[in-house]
Amino acid sequence: MTTRTRRPRAALATGAVAIAASLVLVPTAALAATPADVAQNGGAARSIDDSTQALLDSVQAGPAKNVILLIGDGMGDSEITSARNYAYGAGGTLPGIDSLPLTGQYTTYSLNKSGPNAGKPDYVPDSAATGSAWATGTKTYDNAISVDVEGTPQDTLLEIAKANGLKTGNVSTAELQDATPAVQAAHVAARSCYGPDTVEQCGDDALDQGGLGSISEQIIGTRADLTLGGGAASFTQTARAGQYEGSALFDQAADRGYQVVRDAAGLDAVTAADQTAPVLGTFTDGNFPTRYAATTATVGGADLAPQTCQPNPARLSTDLSLRSLTEKSIDLLDGDAGFFLQVEGASIDKRDHSADACGQIGEVLDLDEAVQAALEFAEADGNTMVIVTADHAHTSQIVDSTPPATLSTALTTVDGSTMKIAYGTAAEGGSQQHTGTQLRVAGYGPGAANVVGLIDQTDNFFTIVNALQLDRDLDGLSADATVSAPAEVAPGATFDVTASGVAGDRQVSGVLTPAAGDPVDLGTVDVIDGVATFSVTAPDELGSATVTLTGVQSGVVLDAAVTVADGAVAPAPTASASPVPGSGDGDGSDGSDGAGVVPGAGTAGGGPLAFTGSEALPALLLAAMLVAAGAVLVARRRRAAGTFDHSGAQH
């Protein structure tokens, strides 16, 4: 793994302010050109008044309440330019992508995983490595989904934002298992590990091999508030291991509280998306159909009669367009907590691979409409950062004459001119290659000045983390967790054990250890708003039983001691927790009583005192002796409100 030294941002923001100030002095220029006036003096100039005001609005240090990150997969400068030329003319403007006032360029190289160049730059990356770079701030190898070159999972923007209490969304026109949406929700060594049936591709990452599971299974476990896209086919597969073994993934999601929607009407009916009832919407088995029907580039094709792009009859209804999905997502995520939303226009890349000029142009236009929706919200909200960029560049080039041995297509643009597009990195029928050039990154809103200049793709991660002021120490977000359980239950009774303050975890596992007999695996439950609750059936054996809860991601361990006794009354909650790192150090500074015991865990009716796990059993025995002697112990405690220093330390 390589370490990148990041340049100071204060100077950058200051420079942007200076740029903004200088632009105020520029006289108003002509509006963007139409085909009729491009030949006029100044006819191709854009509106400086509008861009100046947008720039001034964007040069804010932050923080931002919300961030919307829009990705055009494979959207290099050539793909942007060809779409602009075709739909708006050479002197025109893409109303979304070209409207973001702060622009820079970023490098996108990945790393070689092995061999003599291990750890050195791989200059032409794939979507997995590039997506992992902005999602985690970590360079990695092609094919990797949010793991580093050693295979170690790296926390993603979506996971970090969720742990910090923000709402989260992940939207794509691709299969949700595809690299760009996957990098926010999964950690696998191979991007092709789509579902439980991709056994060979998953390898050690499969659940039955002790791994985290396929991308589809991890998407469910990551539990974004909102996940929308294609890829339904993988969710119909059946889990091969774990507590949901034998269940289809769609059924598993529903069992875990998801609102599973499969069509536009189902999505329209959704009025809320949160951790209690997150949304999993899949509207196609695979990728979304494109906006325009495919064109086929051929050797000498640009010398044929120029074409105009035709609507694709298979395109989804407009209420499932990328703009509509973006608007719906913003509507469901917007609120007091703030949100992080990633939106991908996926098939710019896919149609570029196929040397399909109309296909890729239509997908750029679709993304542009989604960008417009994001900007409209950000401008009205005043506290939202929007970033628009791509993962890697691609092969299409706008050329002057038909290359003699290269695939090409000629299109008639809105200007009435012919635009020739060539694809020169694969033969006819082959898959065109990515390229290694730097890419445009553009921003609007508080913190967006950090995209200006030449940066690296990994810098996007830090721009977003810093704008949202996210605490990256996820283990620390679970360090002060507590557990509550009734002190006494009857044999065979059902009771709840709840872990609170486990925001740094996505799941918590549980084990019940009875007074006699083998431990009972309670499985795992999802953490919802920092809380995980287990419904436990008491053992038949009388005596002290222990419920041990473990944060799956943080490793924090919480023990609750429960006495199984004949004639026990209906359980009332109490608490007992084993010490966690950084808490109960005996000085009382963390809100404890100075002995590592946090007050406030007593029952509402004056039940037994709450102790740490190591003290619980002696306390219960003492209480039993006192009861036998006719004494009654009644106490109440109130827990003081604890604080946590959100230092933003790297995790």
Structural class comes to: alpha/beta
Please describe the biggest sheet, giving its number of strands, its sense, and whether it closes into a barrel.
Answer: 10 strands, mixed
What is the number of helical segments per DSSP (H or I, 4+ residues)? 17
Number of DSSP-assigned strands: 25
In what order do the strands lie side by side in the largest sheet? Answer: 7-8-6-5-10-1-11-15-2-16
Please give the share of residues in helix.
10-25%
Name of the level-1 CATH class of the largest domain: Alpha Beta
The fraction of residues in strands falls at 15-25%
Shape: elongated
Give the total of domains: 3
What does this protein structure show overall?
The protein is of the alpha/beta class. It has 17 helices and 25 strands. Helix 1 packs antiparallel against helix 2, helix 3 crosses helix 14 (357-381) and helix 12 runs parallel beside helix 14.
Summary tags:
alpha/beta; disordered N terminus; Immunoglobulin-like; 651 residues; disordered C terminus; Alkaline Phosphatase, subunit A
Summarize the SSE layout with pairings.
Elements: H1 10-23, H2 48-58, E1 66-72, H3 77-88, E2 102-107, E3 110-111, E4 121-122, H4 127-136, H5 157-163, E5 167-175, H6 179-182, H7 199-202, H8 215-222, E6 226-230, H9 232-235, H10 249-255, E7 259-261, H11 264-268, E8 279-282, E9 298-299, H12 322-333, E10 339-345, H13 347-353, H14 357-381, E11 384-390, E12 397-399, E13 407-412, E14 418-423, E15 439-444, E16 453-456, H15 457-468, H16 474-477, E17 482-486, E18 488-489, E19 494-500, E20 507-513, E21 520-526, E22 531-537, E23 543-551, E24 557-564, E25 573-575, H17 613-628
Parallel strand pairs: 1-10, 1-11, 2-16, 5-6, 5-10, 6-8, 7-8, 18-24
Antiparallel strand pairs: 2-15, 3-4, 9-13, 11-15, 12-14, 13-14, 17-19, 17-25, 19-22, 20-21, 20-23, 23-24
Helix pairs in contact: 1-2, 3-14, 4-15, 12-14, 13-14
